[in-house]
Amino acid sequence: MLTETREITFAQAINEAMLEEMRRDDSVIVMGEDVAACGGVYKLTQGLLGEFGPERVLDTPISEAAIVGLGVGAAVTGLRPIVEVMFGDFLGLAMDQIVNQAAKIHYMSGGALRVPLVIRTTMGAGKRAAAQHSQTLSVWLAHIPGLKVVVPSTPYDAKGLLKTAIRDNNPVIFFEDKMMYQKKGIVPDPSDGYKVPFGKADVKRTGSDLTLIATSSMIYVALEAADELAKQGIEAEVIDPRTLTPLDETTLVDSVMKTSHCIVIDEGYQRFGVTAEIAATIAEKAFHHLEAPVRRIGAMDVPLPFAPVLEDQTIPTSASVARTARELLGR
């Protein structure tokens, strides 16, 4: 049962999750660029060094390959590292450590070894940070067996999912949309100790006319579109998968079987992306309930521009979702 609640930011929720898990378990450590003395570039690790000291909160060199490699080694030898990679765009520099080491060690050791590693990283456009600091690349990791991929959208989910990730015995890639760090939401009191399970989608809004499946910050785009559509008599159900791997197919399919229409929204590139995988799942498992093809809305297949007027045109908006919904329903 939930105790008292309070309103905190997404960033505070992440910070609280790490604080609470480090207090609970001495094997939890944090490492990354500027996570110690500076408290992190987004101040998400603020206060950790003062409470836990430099043996559990470690600043690292500017080398994603080294940071993740250290994390994998620490995990295999009994610790529970939380590794911060400042920008998800830089995961490519650590792909061997993530894809060929972290994801496979448990299998290749016949179950003798495990890698309880959390890689926290960012995603998302909108900060005018241009093509190398704005991408949403969660689908890269969701493609790899052995990895779990988390994409929270609210402070409640962010805290609960991060606590689950830290306690998981598998490598978890935890994507945080940097545009949401100051987004506020209701979160239980720290004494509650709640967690949010992996593989359980959340219905953020109920509806009967169509299903909007949206990931991370796109939940807010979908909810805004749903509010607009409601003024025109269209009731949209909005579902947040919360984790890409594992994916709660049952909740998604059940919703589409009820509404018979579906739009999938993700900020990653549309081609070969998250929207394609979820749309394929819906098409395979709810085909006879669909009254129209599943529609997809993702980022435009171009490098993200620096110019604000151009960047805003490349990512999904509530207007584009509402327009697509009206077209889908013939309204």
Describe this structure in words.
The chain folds into 2 domains: 186 residues, Thiamin diphosphate (ThDP)-binding fold, Pyr/PP domains (Rossmann fold); 128 residues, Rossmann fold, CATH 3.40.50. Strand 6, helix 7 and strand 7 form a beta-alpha-beta unit. The protein is α/β, with parallel strands linked by helices and 331 residues long. The chain is globular and about 60 Å long. The strands form 3 sheets. It has a 7-stranded mixed beta sheet, sandwiched between helices. It contains 12 helices and 14 strands.
What descriptive keywords fit this protein?
single chain; 331 residues; alpha/beta; Rossmann fold; 5-stranded mixed beta sheet; 14 strands
Strand arrangement, major sheet: 3-2-4-5-7-6-12
Specify the number of helices: 12
For the record, the CATH class of the largest domain is: Alpha Beta
Question: How would you classify the helix and strand content by structural class?
Answer: alpha/beta
Main pleated-sheet profile: 7 strands, mixed
Percent range of helical residues: 25-40%
Q: What's the β-strand tally?
A: 14
CATH H-level name of the largest domain... which superfamily?
Thiamin diphosphate (ThDP)-binding fold, Pyr/PP domains
CATH names the topology of the largest domain as Rossmann fold
Shape: globular
Assembly classification: single chain
Topology as a string of helices (H) and strands (E): EHEHEHEHHEHEHEEEEHEEHEHEHH
Report the span from N to C terminus. Answer: 43 Å
